[in-house]
Design goal:
Layout: E1 2-9, E2 18-25, H1 33-46, E3 69-70, E4 73-74, E5 96-100, E6 109-111, E7 114-115, H2 118-127, H3 147-157, H4 164-168, H5 175-187, H6 189-192, H7 195-209, H8 218-222, H9 230-248
Parallel strand pairs: 1-5
Antiparallel strand pairs: 1-2, 3-4, 3-5, 6-7
Helix pairs in contact: 2-7, 3-5, 5-7, 5-9, 7-9
């Protein structure tokens, strides 16, 4: 089986990019998109050509390292599925794929399909954490958390930070990502003491690196963790809450 790949090639972030077309032989329907790229790179290296650069790590849909744009859609044609878990058998009629990096102003191209997503890291550095008193670890049941609360927190903590939501948004917004972090920590007692400071820090970083929310909801359609759109609403709600509490202090 053969498949035609149109791959974006770009030597570095300041270099002009272009599409190059390759025919990849030996493809099977059980292969994932990244395995097709592996096979392409084996053929390129064997021919003495430069392989296509792309990001990947666990290839189990957990780490969030992978992320490419396939035929104009972040991650690929299968909704809510990371690139590493999109297999050719899921779109069997496809004989040609157009592969690009995740397209967003906040994600400059490093090389080919690999992009710099450190803007997401800056959101976490700004407020996606809690301050705790170090020392001997407390017992697991020292502070009880209700089942429903724990489940809600875990749902939003499931965000893997892949950046597909940013690439899917026409405005390059990261509200789904940031809202997931805000709600995850706001649900749990150890994150509530810094809730206002966290909201101000995260929303400030959002305004600096990302665009405004488009309100179309494309982000939720590509999110591998199925993060609910409630996370988007949480960004403004947490920001307003932080402003009102500061005014009343």
């Amino acid at each position: 089986m053969e498949i035609t790949i149109e791959a974006w090639r770009q030597e570095h972030r300041d270099a002009p990019g272009r599409f190059e077309t390759y025919v990849v032989a030996g493809v099977t329907e059980q292969m994932s998109l990244l395995e097709v790229l592996d096979l392409l790179n084996e053929q390129l290296v064997a021919a003495g050509d430069e392989p296509v650069a792309f990001d990947s790590d666990c290839r189990e849909g957990i780490c969030g390292a992978c992320g490419i744009t396939v035929d104009g859609r972040p991650h690929g044609p299968v909704p809510n599925t990371p690139s590493c878990l999109q297999h050719l058998r899921q779109f069997p009629q496809t004989t040609r794929l157009r592969l690009e990096p995740l397209r967003a102003n906040a994600f400059p191209v490093v090389r080919d399909l690999a992009v710099d997503r450190s803007a997401l890291d800056r959101v976490i550095e700004a407020g996606g954490h809690v301050d705790v008193r170090t020392g001997q670890a407390a017992d697991a049941d020292a502070e009880l958390v209700g089942h429903d609360t724990a489940e809600r927190a875990l749902d939003f903590a499931g965000c893997i930070g892949c950046g597909a939501c940013v690439a899917a948004c026409p405005n390059g917004a990261a509200h789904l990502f940031a809202g997931a972090k805000l709600l995850h920590l706001a649900e749990l007692s150890y994150g509530k003491q810094e809730r206002g400071r966290r909201a101000r820090a995260i929303t400030g970083q959002l305004d600096h690196d990302f665009g405004p929310c488009s309100s179309f909801g494309e982000c939720a359609q590509v999110c591998p963790a199925d993060i609910d759109l409630a996370a988007v609403a949480a960004v403004n709600r947490e920001s307003i809450r932080a402003g009102l509490r500061r005014r009343s202090d």
